[in-house]
Specification:
Number of strands: 10
Strand order of the largest sheet: 1-2-5-9-8
Distance between the termini: 80 Å
Structural class: alpha+beta
Largest sheet: 5 strands, antiparallel
Strand content: 35-45%
CATH topology of the largest domain: Chondroitinase Ac, Chain A, domain 3
Number of helices: 2
Number of domains: 2
Mean pLDDT: 84
Shape: elongated
Low-confidence stretches: 17-30
CATH class of the largest domain: Mainly Beta
Order of helices and strands: HEEEEEHEEEEE
Helix content: 10-25%
CATH architecture of the largest domain: Sandwich
Length: about 160
């Protein structure tokens, strides 16, 4: 094989490699998610950048009740609802985007005015609600977050300090 042919082959391989990397990076940076499941009765949806293994079942179990268990900071108000979410079987590695919808009237009745609604995860070992990095929509009453671990989640907010 001539040097010119070898260079052309390696050039094509490198171009293909960079196209694949660029596609992957742009997909991740643009948050291109495919819907895994929409659960309107639970006011929740799950999406992922990658398909879950065939046969994976998504279970979303909402609980419409006051949260009377688990420690939390005194300045945290949890909305009266939590979700138990699981995948069965659990994939080896996954990241999902979870979206929860909340009732703005309940939020306001609990004293929410300008506070940011966020996601809290229940740590079963510590028996405590832990705040997660999440994003509250400015146009709809929803909160989104990414996670690689599904379990028990709730929505809440930190009360503003009264001066």
């Amino acid at each position: 094989m001539s040097n010119i042919t070898s260079v052309k082959i390696w050039s094509a391989v490198l171009i293909l490699f960079f196209l694949l990397v660029w596609t992957y990076v742009s997909q991740r940076s643009n948050n291109t998610w495919m819907l895994l499941g929409d659960f309107p009765e639970a006011h929740a949806s799950l999406a992922s950048a990658e398909a879950l293994p065939a046969g994976t079942q998504i279970v979303v179990d909402p609980h419409e009740e006051w949260i009377s268990f688990g420690d939390r900071p005194d300045d945290v108000v949890l909305l009266p609802k939590f979700w138990d979410i699981k995948l069965d079987p659990v994939p080896d590695a996954y990241t999902v985007e979870v979206t929860f919808e909340y009732d703005p009237e309940v939020y306001a009745a609990l004293g929410g005015v300008n506070e940011v609604v966020g996601v809290f995860s229940y740590d079963r070992k510590e028996k405590a609600w832990i705040p997660l990095n999440s994003e509250m929509s400015t146009t709809r009453p929803v909160v989104r977050f990414e996670t690689s671990y599904l379990d028990r989640f709730a929505l809440g907010f930190y009360k503003e300090a009264k001066e």
